[in-house]
Amino acid sequence: MQIFQVIGVGLLGVIISGLLKKDKPEFTLLVLLASGVMILVILLSSLTEVINAFATLVHQAGLDNELFAGVLKIIGIGYLTEYAASMCTDCGAGSVATKIQLGGKITIFLMGLPIIQALVNTIAQLL
Question: Which end of the chain is least crowded, N or C, by CB within 10 Å?
Answer without folding.
Answer: C
